[in-house]
Write a structure and sequence with these properties.
Protein name: HipA-like kinase domain-containing protein
Helix content: 25-40%
Number of helices: 8
Bound molecules: adenosine-5'-triphosphate, magnesium ion
Pfam families: HipA_2 (PF20613)
Distance between the termini: 44 Å
Organism: Streptomyces hiroshimensis
Strand content: 15-25%
């Protein structure tokens, strides 16, 4: 089970995130990025964060630790922003926390080199979970202590928005053309050989068990939270078997210059102006 903490202070909103996550402090003296149940994206975003975050970490990818976090909206009383106030009020009770990586930088493919093996592992994993949110437009990767960290798995597993079609979705291909790591010569065959056998029913069952019952309750067509967990396990298990052969890397949709300012590139690897 995920550890549980209680939010003690709302520090600041992270405005670059579409769902307006917030930095909060908690009663374990930790600092977290909090994702709110009351955000417009809905609770399935949080389910996806838990399933994919826990799965990614179990497969050896770097994903910041997750925790359950209790929120009393009263801690945001002094927050002047109406949007934040609304979000906090709508999110009393259980929410999701991700360990905050202080000083982490947004990944820039022109400033930070990624090896073929690691690029392959990340793309294979994103194909498994059908992540459409690791593109050069929005990489959702951080660089921290010189290493790549994966964040933001809210927009994955599109099939959980349409369970009757989920079995068919398990066999669908993954187009990695716009993936931010597509240009690093990803070794997809090695990644599939290494990771696919590790995506076992046992591992997926463990991962699904970390999703709080509250976020799985009352799902139409299911007889309770455990039945929904089972559905996540089945689709991912099926998908892991063959997705390695169904990843395509074609032409990127449009070229894009580096987003990072010069000083960031110098700080990252000393190679200015690449
Ligand atoms: N664990 C973390 N440590 C440090 N910074 C983080 C962490 N998680 C998120 N951030 C920062 O907050 C931003 C928003 O987070 P995230 O992408 O998870 O939010 P989102 O609302 O799901 O965003 P999106 O607009 O991509 O849907 C990230 O781009 C990153 O800059
Ligand atoms: Mg994001």
């Amino acid at each position: 089970m995920l550890p549980e903490v209680t939010a003690t202070r709302y520090v600041t909103p992270l405005r670059e995130g579409g769902s307006l996550p917030g930095i909060v402090e908690a009663d374990d003296l930790g600092t977290y990025v909090m994702k709110f149940t009351g955000a417009g994206q809905g609770r399935k975003t949080l389910v996806a964060e838990v399933v994919c975050g826990q799965l990614g970490r179990a497969l050896g990818l770097r994903v910041p630790d997750l925790a359950r976090i209790q929120l009393d909206p009263v801690i945001g009383r002094g927050e002047p922003d109406q949007e934040v106030q609304g979000l906090l009020k709508a999110s009393g009770g259980l929410n999701l926390a991700m360990d905050f990586l202080p000083g982490a930088l947004g990944f820039d493919p022109l400033a930070f080199e990624v090896g073929a093996a690691e690029a392959g592992r990340v793309i294979w994993f994103d194909a498994l979970i059908n992540n459409v949110d690791r593109s050069w437009r929005n990489p959702n990767l951080l660089v921290w202590h010189g290493e790549l960290w994966l964040i933001d798995h809210g927009a994955t597993m599109i099939w959980h928005h349409n369970w009757p079609g989920a079995a068919a979705a398990a066999g669908k291909a993954y187009d990695a053309s716009d993936h931010v790591l597509a240009t690093f010569g990803p070794d997809l065959a090695a990644a599939a050989a290494e990771l696919a056998p590790r995506v076992t029913e046992e591992l997926l069952t463990e991962v699904a068990a970390d999703v709080p019952d509250e976020w799985l309750a009352d799902e139409p067509g299911f007889d309770g939270p455990d039945a929904v967990r089972r559905a996540y396990v089945e689709v991912l298990l099926e998908r892991a078997k063959g997705i390695g052969d169904r990843i395509t890397v074609g032409e990127r949709s449009k070229d894009k210059p580096s987003q990072a300012p010069e000083w960031v590139r110098v700080r990252l690897d000393g190679r200015a102006g690449t």
